[in-house]
User: What shape does this take?
Amino acid sequence: MTEYRSDLLFGACTGNGRILVVDDEPSIRTVVRRMLEKAGYEVLEAENGETAIEAINTGENQLVLDAVICDLRMPKINGLEAMAYFRRAYPHVPLIVLTGYPDTELAVSCLREGVVDYLVKPVDGERLRAAVGKAMEQREMAWR
Assistant: This one.
């Protein structure tokens, strides 16, 4: 794995940031990755909450992330459990929900808990990039 240097910690570097996409559907991960890579983001993928948590905690140094996009319904560790972990372990990393099962009450609950946006599949590329842009702004504000 190549070394990652966040703009927020080390000054300007190539790319707009590193995004972790957590979804059990490979086709969704691929579409989201392609949309975000075209916008200049580095994208990492995980098929569920368990592999996402393992990926960011593997190795000598914890992985630096600028945002996480997470599905809710996944095997092993679901999205709600994974996001609860991310909020505890990485409180400055913004979270975005991307789900195929819209639920107004759950959306309101997630937004109250600090989720940047609650997106419904299939997501429009502009809407996705806008949500990630908002997450990047929040991340920057958190480090000031």
Observations:
- The helical segments are 7-10, 26-38, 49-57, 79-89, 104-112, 125-142.
- Confidence is low (pLDDT under 50) at residues 1-14.
- The domain at 7-142 is CATH 3.40.50.2300 (Rossmann fold).
- Strands lie at 18-22, 42-46, 67-70, 95-99, 117-120.
